[in-house]
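Materials and Methods. Structural model of Beta-lactamase-like protein 2 homolog. The 368-residue sequence of Beta-lactamase-like protein 2 homolog from Dictyocaulus viviparus was retrieved and submitted for structure prediction as follows.
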Amino acid sequence: MTSYINGLAASLRYAKEFVIAASAYLFASKTHSAMPTLTPLDAVSHLDPLVIRILGQNPGPFTLQGTNTYLVGAGKRKILIDTGEPNIQQYIALLRSTLAEEQCEIDSIIITHWHHDHVGGINNVLKEVIGHEMFWSVPVWSENSTISHRQSSIWDFERKKVPVYKIKREAGEDASQFHYVEDGHAVHVDGATLRFVKTPGHTSDHASLWLEEEHVLFSGDCILGEGTTVFEDLYDYMNSLGKIKVLYPKRIYPGHGPVVEKCEQKVDEYIQHRMKRENQIIETLQKLGEATSMDITVAVYSDSPLSVRLAALNNVKLHLNKLIKDEQVEMSSFGVYRLLRKHVKVTVIFDLNSPQMNLLKKLASTDF
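The predicted structure was written out as tokens:
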């Protein structure tokens, strides 16, 4: 009888999560907080001899100053990294004028991940910037994507038979627009080699790009120039931060925000921020014995307004999923979590001796 009552109480607590989360969502949807003060960025910036940054002209709470797109290369042929959002004519005009001023053309396109503020402008770039003459030969590169066919319908370049490249998903439905590449795949243009570094976590298909000639990293949304990023899988995300840390990039060119100069410090800040939250969750479970994700959210984010509780609840669940993978926490069928052991140690979740890590270490230590 006692176990039945405990289970019923846990079920009620679990149901309460959805009520509070829904209330938080409705409240947040009607509450628009002011954007934080951001570092001003020029619309077009020559960051080094091989890299030009062009802002996507789509500023907002999630895109910060806007999506950073990059032209990479030393000669007439350039690689375009990411394409911004769809139908942003100010961006298309900037891209056109920059190509004209530099007397160069887009040789290929690389997409860091499937989010609409990175892939959405592909069709506009192919149609309105590259033009009909080059429309048939420009490859578009990307890693594995989780885009559904409904979402991918915004791209009609598949009908034009433009080659598009990405890593194939191991399981599940995948979009058919991309040709698939592997982790470590290299794309070459005049004076520049970009190598795919698979960095999942923000999304399952996320890729960063290592510019071999400069020892710099295009981080997509894995690392931002300001603030912290969101993620789908914290376990994978922490692994990706470990991969970036081993590379020791001289600079990081992020998907949003200014250039990161103090790269090791930035990566450490990201890791420490997540570990601080994880330790708070562990301490809460040690104190409560067992708790739902909402119980933990209320304890950890006790000073946060209701308008941020939904995002906080999601973060807590992602942390708990990681702790389950680390075999530090278990969840009952009623959605109640508890620690598997009292003394928790931090687990190294990336294999420093894997072939991919050995390749990264070799690249990071090579002088070009």
